[in-house]
């Protein structure tokens, strides 16, 4: 008889990390072992497409944003020809981050240590005090800021990959694209503006995958957010009852992406919630039936590995350590929408996700307590088997369950296992 697998020993074998996860459960070490986070950065964040930012964050020539791919600092900028670039935010001379500010506008990027000056595409314009270099000591062509090997965008969402090879962004997004379309097509102009109406950051003392799982968590709502639901039921009973719509789904979209349908309102309620001029604007672009569908259906969408789209926000997830995560919530406005609609979006976001909201602080507390519970190393497993036996698969290959099943959490780990199996 074969000896049972010692998963704690398996956690010490980098080429077998992927075996620590199954559709039913994850081994505790996925959330607690620093070496596994290091492997996730190398095999996931530094190989696949990672969300960098929205092009509305850098609307004008010379605008830039500094952010990260995993732990690698990068700059997203727009040059004088309106082209968007993503380069590594590291001076090629002595290694400083060239630009420490999160947002700004500049003609060039200038290293504050020795004055090396770079264009927005990363090319080296000049060294500081160039007369100090003798002929042949500097090759400008090879000493520019390193560009991300691949940069692409979809509907204003800018992604980059640190790998020169791999599937295209179009292939990576796959079946998530129609849901991204629906998010943007709420706007009468078919475009959105990110971050200008609010950017809220928080950290929690837990692994990055906890927030990835939690962004599409339908099971916890009735328990963690009881107070919110009780108040909402008294204030808006006609709306809140549609959280219980039996036709709502949780869907594995492939490539680690997934979505839960949170609420679906009938047309008469859409007409009650949204003013007629706004509905007409949207219908003129997408048609009346699609308008009622996208305005009436609230969804939470995860784009693996670091992006989630919720009704009013773009959520970006960044691992800082195995037990420390930074989350940025970039509020979004619908371009061309009446002020009252965008004001409703701001107030709704504040009410649930803001630092004094009914939902976000509850979730952060749950995440902290999960990581605290993970210190009980004698209990090895974290389970994701809710609804597994009744999950169905449609003709497109999408796995489908209920929003309070764990179909969407399992979706993340099919891709996680695939990428983590590449131990090169």
Verbal overview:
This protein has 424 residues and is of the alpha+beta class. It has 2 domains: 50-161, Rieske Iron-sulfur Protein; 185-420, Naphthalene 1,2-dioxygenase Alpha Subunit, Chain A, domain 1 (Alpha-Beta Complex), CATH 3.90.380.10. Helix content is 30%, strand content 26%. It has 15 helices and 21 strands. It has helices at 7-10, 29-32, 34-45, 169-173, 177-184, 208-214, 221-224, 226-235, 237-240, 267-273, 276-286, 288-296, 339-353, 360-373, 407-420; strands at residues 25-27, 50-54, 63-69, 72-78, 84-88, 103-105, 109-110, 117-118, 124-126, 150-154, 157-161, 192-204, 250-254, 257-264, 297-303, 307-310, 313-321, 324-334, 381-383, 392-393, 399-401. The protein has a 9-stranded antiparallel β-sheet with strand order 12-18-17-16-15-14-13-21-20, with helices on both faces. Strand 20 (392-393) and strand 21 form a beta hairpin. Helix 11 crosses helix 12. It is globular, with a radius of gyration of 23 Å. The mean pLDDT is 94.
Query: Which percent range fits the helix content?
Result: 25-40%
Number of domains: 2
CATH topology of the largest domain: Naphthalene 1,2-dioxygenase Alpha Subunit, Chain A, domain 1
The CATH class of the largest domain turns out to be: Alpha Beta
Using the CA coordinates, give the radius of gyration. 23 Å
- Ranges where pLDDT stays below 50 over 5 or more residues in a row are none
